[in-house]
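Justification of resources, computational component.

The compute hours requested in this renewal are based largely on the per-chain cost of generating structure records like the one below. Each record pairs the submitted sequence with a full structure-token output. That output is archived, and it is also reused by downstream analysis tasks.
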Amino acid sequence: MRVSSTPWERLNGEVASNTVGDRITASVTRGGVLLLSGLEVTDFSVNWDASRTVQGQCTVRLADPAGRLWPRTVADPLAPGGSRIHLAYVFGVTGTVVPLGAWRIRQTKPETYWQWRRLGSRMVWLPTGTVTIKADEETATCDMERLDPTERAPSRHSVLSEVAWLLGDAFAQVIVDDDVTDAPVPDYLEYGENRLSVACELLDLINATYRCRNDGALEIIPAYGIPAPWFIEPGEGGTLVSYQATMDDADIVNGVTSYREIDDELIVARARITGGPLAWGGPFGRVPMLRNSDLIESQHDADDDAAKTLARVTAAGAVPLEVATVLHPALELYDRIPVRVPRFPDVAEITGMVTRIGWAAGSGVTDKAMSLTVMVDYNEFENLLKGELDNASE
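The structure output for this chain reads:
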């Protein structure tokens, strides 16, 4: 969950209440210097997607009634020359603020209309309109930067220290969750030129991932997510609007085979799901993920790679639960939340990890609706459906 000065109990209560007039506020800085404040946001949309390296992307439309905001040069405040737009969610009734962090301005599109107006004793052309900004989370900077050829040899320190070296300059600090276990960087690993891609490769080695915090920090967390102090439930006073699950076997595997050929000798290790509907050799079949990994130097390395990859794949879940709910501005990617869904004759709870978030605002006011993708475990979802069928037949 995003960092907030408001206690979680109060913030969750705000979400579930009938607050009206919630809005987005915006200001602009460059190099830590405030350039613009009190900007009027007329339209806003944001989405976070765990499948992207730059997870957070947003579009902000700002009112420009005097025609002074649209940039003429790359040095202007709203130009994509290193400016950051700072966004915050404000609850309409209480004024409670949830910062959404700083976003790198990537593209600016002014829509300017010239009007023939009287100014004093003469008629003149005056501009008015809006400025639409596309902005990304700070990892966009890491994605844009390239490693110099002299920097592409790892220091051979630990994974976490290398990730901090690769990405740390773009963030106020790098915070590592207590459940993330560090490991040495393999001696044979060679770096590519993209800083963010290299960091992702390193974090895969320790079954970890990252997300941008709204206080300017980069957070390193387990790839299977971390518990969040919120739940979604139906009924009066609840936050659930609807849910549905789309299942596709194209993205499902029930095993991992890791291998590497060294000096004409093939090193192979296999990890398999042994129970449940996806058991290897059962009705689902034998559908492995094949990994030809340069990180393997021994049989132990191969065994470890296969086991950890299978754990990562299964922990991430395989059934995407599409959830429509009341907007919670503090919810983040990789939050693990319980979703309480209607099931005859009562409700059932299923826990999953948030992998996609989307919400919007129009005419300066947020829609109060949020769409989520929550990845849930195969077996948990099967038990949920089985319970529905069993109860319905009674």
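The radius of gyration is 24 Å. The chain has four domains: 8-136, 143-222, 232-247+319-359+366-393, 253-315.
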